[in-house]
Specification:
It contains four helices and four strands; from the N terminus they run E-H-E-H-E-H-E-H. By secondary structure, the protein is of the alpha/beta class. The longest helix is centred in the C-terminal third of the chain and has 22 residues. Strand 1, helix 1 and strand 2 form a beta-alpha-beta unit. The chain has a single domain, classed as Rossmann fold. The chain is 47% helix and 16% strand. The chain binds NADP nicotinamide-adenine-dinucleotide phosphate. The site of NADP nicotinamide-adenine-dinucleotide phosphate has 19 residues, from helix 1. Keywords: Oxidoreductase.
Length: 128
């Protein structure tokens, strides 16, 4: 991980679960992590608990609903202004509605596709 020390990572869905775990691990390895999710307060709490490491690692939280393209573009614009860009992109945000093919709700299917298919495509394009 030494080569990534001081570099910048974007982690989507950093407010809980696997994304919070990845964000914390990258910070401990000296990365500057821009963690995004809708519940930015949870990311800020995690950031406070991690602080800034001896190698300069830290977690910066930003509110972003990945189903909103303007929110995504704001994240990349902020990262460019603050850090000069992003070196590592972790498309982690996800959710699952209990919504089966036979009885499911179209809105819930659309939400899952937006968060887990379309958003990672937009984020990857903007990252590259
Ligand atoms: N846990 C498992 O066993 C497992 C297995 C296979 C795949 N996965 C995948 O791994 C990823 C993380 O899973 P997890 O278990 O850590 O889930 P989790 O604890 O429910 O966390 C999901 C994260 O995604 C974020 N998110 C959801 N909708 C969002 C939106 N519209 N905009 C921005 N962020 C959004 C949530 O943040 P906010 O609610 O604050 O926005 C949260 O931070 C998901 O993609 C999941 O599908 C998990």
């Amino acid at each position: 991980m030494d080569r990534w020390c001081g570099r910048v990572a974007l982690v989507t869905g950093a407010s809980s679960g696997i994304g919070a775990g990845i964000a914390a691990s990258l910070v401990k390895n000296g990365m500057i992590v821009l963690g995004v999710a809708r519940d930015v307060e949870r990311i800020k709490k995690l950031s406070d608990s991690l602080g800034t490491t001896a190698s300069g690692g830290k977690l910066v939280g930003m509110k972003c609903d990945v189903t909103n393209e303007d929110d995504i573009k704001s994240v990349f614009s902020y990262a460019k202004d603050q850090f000069g860009g992003i070196d590592v992109c972790v498309n982690n945000a996800g959710l699952s509605h209990s919504s089966s093919l036979l009885t499911g709700d179209t809105k819930e299917w659309r939400n899952m596709l937006d968060v887990m298919i379309l958003a990672p495509c937009i984020i990857t394009r903007e990252f590259m």
